[in-house]
Amino acid sequence: MIELEGLTKRYGEKVAVNNLTFTVRPGIVTGFLGPNGAGKSTTMRMMLGLDRPTAGDVRIDGQHYDRLKDPLRYIGALLDAKAMHGGRSAFNHLLCLAQSNGIPRGRVDEVLDTVGLTAVAKKKAKGFSLGMGQRLGIAGALLGDPRILMFDEPVNGLDPEGIHWIRNLMKSLAAQGRTVFVSSHLMSEMALTADHLVVIGQGRLLADTSMADFIEQNSRSYVRIRTPQRERLLDVLHGAGITVVETGGGALEVDGGKPEHIGELAAQHQIVLHELSPQQASLEEAFMQLTAESVEYHAHAETPREQQTWGDGWKGN
Questions:
Q1: Model-level pTM?
Q2: 11-22 burial by CB neighbour count: b if 16+ within 10 A, else e?
Q3: Of 63, 117, 151, 204, which one's alpha carbon is 20 to 30 angstroms from that of 89?
Q4: How far apart are CA 142 and CA 108, in angstroms?
Q5: Which residues pair with 182 in a beta bridge?
Q6: Helix (H, G, I), strand (E, B) or coil at 75
Q7: Are the beta carbons of 187 and 193 closer than 8 angstroms?
């Protein structure tokens, strides 16, 4: 378990993390989301004792990280896959970590096999691709067989097979009762992996809730209907006190309606339905809705004037 209470970090006038309080619990995968510059990396570094909080407290299984003896046995982390000596082989990189934390040498072979790097165990890390380096970083996190695991962008550089593997690995670790905390910008993958979400913006806590509740609370849900008897269905729904939105694509939308009730009404009046489907926003849409005012860096499309200037510049060359 990871517990944060009033965690704050200032860099001069800049407040990177502002009074964060939440708990990362065992047995589930907790996703950690926020726009760029929200303070996610700073928060994770403070969890591992790499940055000292300006105020507040963070504990790993009830202890400060710097008080843990052989910390890799308590918490394993992947924050930066490139944080390794490029001149060492994959095996020797992990062996150094193992020896510094009293972990048996045999565990190195076990985790290399787990992440699929046994065949390149003797190769130097500087020759690894981004995906191979990511797998080696994950092996380092698993090395001490810890009860708590923390991953920052774990699918970065992985191919589809690797993404599927790390997703199942995180779910498996949580199913074993371990605490799994993962930060990622890949919303589609987070939606498939996380059970619970912690969302921050500009260093402040915006949400601490289940995946299902987060999407429900931060998005529009509605029922989409298509029928060749459009006008008749409109009359029936209006008569039942149901508000209908007519879309340009020929479909009808009912906010907050129950498809079962709408289907029963249509059947009672012998109205043919070609579609009756509940719709809900994706995690990405819900996230964008919640964090819209917390985004620090906004990109904008080129204006027609800017495009014309660019084109004229090239014509003159």
A1: 0.78
A2: eeeebbbbebeb
A3: 151
A4: 10
A5: 31, 151
A6: strand
A7: no
| Helix (H/G/I), strand (E/B), else coil: 111 | helix
What band does 302 get if pLDDT is binned at 50, 70 and 90? low
E strand intervals along 153-263: 179-183, 196-201, 204-210, 221-226, 245-246, 252-255
Lowest-confidence pick of 40-49, 54-63, 278-287, 308-317: 308-317
Separation between Cα atoms, residue 16 and residue 209, nearest integer Å: 22
**Closest C-alpha among 193, 152, 202, 184 to residue 44:** 152
What secondary structure does DSSP assign to 131-163, as a single string? Answer: HHHHHHHHHHHHTT--SEEEEESTTTT--HHHH
- How far is it, in rounded angstroms, from Cα 225 to Cα 273? 7
The H helix count followed by the E strand count for the chain is 11, 13
How many other CB atoms are there within 10 angstroms of residue 239's CB atom?
10
Decide: 187 and 283 in contact? Cβ < 8 Å. Answer: yes
Number of neighbouring beta carbons within 10 Å of residue 287: 26
Contacts of 115 (CB under 8 A, 6+ apart): 135, 136, 138, 139, 142
pLDDT classification of 295: cutoffs 50, 70, 90: low
Segment 68-80 mean pLDDT: 91
Instruction: Give how far the C-alpha of residue 120 lies from the chain's centroid of Cα atoms, to the nearest Å.
Output: 30
Taking all residues of the chain, what is their mean pLDDT, rounded to a whole number? Answer: 88
Residue corresponding to tokens 């996703």 = 31
Torsional sign, CA 50, 55, 58, 64: positive
The one-letter amino acid code at 82 reads K
CA dihedral of 172, 178, 181, 187, whole degrees rounded to 10: 20
Query: What does the block give as tokens for 211?
Result: 């995946």
**Tokens standing for residue 6:** 């009033």
- Looking at residue 55, its amino acid is A
Contact in structure between 122 and 94 (CB atoms under 8 Å) = no
